[in-house]
Amino acid sequence: MGIFSKKKPMQKRNSPGSMVIPWGAFGTNWSRALEQNPSVFSCEQLISNAIASLPVDLLFKKNDGSRVKAYTHPMYNVLKREPNTEEVPQVFYGRLVRHLLRGNAFLRPIRDRQGRVIEIFLLDPATVSVERNDSGKKIFKQGKNEYSSKEILHIPGVGYDGVRGYSPLEFAKSTLETASNIEAYAARAFEGRIGSRALVDISSMYPDGATDDDIREMAAYLRNNYSGEENEGKPLILWDGMKVNSIEATDNRESQLLENRQYQNKIIAQIYQVPLFLLGEGENKYNSQEAQNINFLQYTLLPWIRIIEQYLGMLLDSYERERHSVSFNTAGFLRGDHKSRMEAYVKGIQSGIYSVDEVRNLENLTALPESGEVHFIPANLMPLNNETIGAYMASAKLKAQSLIGKESEGVGDDKQ
Q1: Which of 32, 93, 222, 270 has the highest CB neighbour count under 10 A?
Q2: Residue 234 shares a structural domain with residue 256
Q3: Are residues 233 and 275 in the same domain?
């Protein structure tokens, strides 16, 4: 006999929303789960946004070994200003890095009649399959379309096996599945109020003892009508001697939920080589912004930057690659505070390393009307050119000869 058979039927309410089991926990697609993990998302955003914000240049190597920007090359504008007709560089490179962090980036270059790249489009990695044909060449399939390795530039991520790259997350699957389970537990904690329990005494309602069906029906009724956020604060109606007492279970702190989540965040940060304090946890141990940026650049960004630079260089033909190279300009990322920059600029100008206009350009200022491109050397800050150096050396020679002459005049002289 059910618990409502003796009483006026009550209308059951549905559960206040299905239970949230986020990010593929408990055996569902774990990779999709982790893509939505807040710490994973933060790491990918930090890396992709930082790289996408760097200026990209196509450089040309001159005979003297110096490098200049290859303004006249068709691919310079593609890399620098307009990768394609739909995306600006910030969006394009941000997507490219995010694809690469997931394991693979696929670029579809559009070429003119001379074979030079005039546009670059990104393909969705989830829609592209890779295999090798009988001759060992890569074949890329996207829907009904099939492309050769000459039509698609494949940039693989870490752990490249000759066919595809892998996401860093795939090398820590078990650890990150635990992170998903912790997130699922946290969701249930807020959904079902884990940490507190209601002890329901129904012995008075069933003097002869309740059956298993009676207990299940009572539990389902209480859960559907009195648990969850939507039922917060709703009064509990008791009848026929029902007794309800609240018992407090071990709280989330005591059950180490917080500590476990912090540990998982630490593991995710280590996988991406992202300083933990950039995720809002841990302590920033760097003494300056410059030191922090140098560390982030060297250990987190540069490995990905070098991969992208080298693969983008493959869009050039073999002859062009002898003199041309793709380069992300990281100088702006290493900017210190204002005082440190000014002190460095002064030393650079006095040592002939920078001209005034070069310094002004680094600070996004316009060039001086005249003489701003002149370099100086420490000797009275003279202009650094052949004429000045010649005049300086001639003057030094005259002074040396004058000193020698004075010493000669004093030989045999008895003057005190």
Answers
A1: 93
A2: no
A3: no
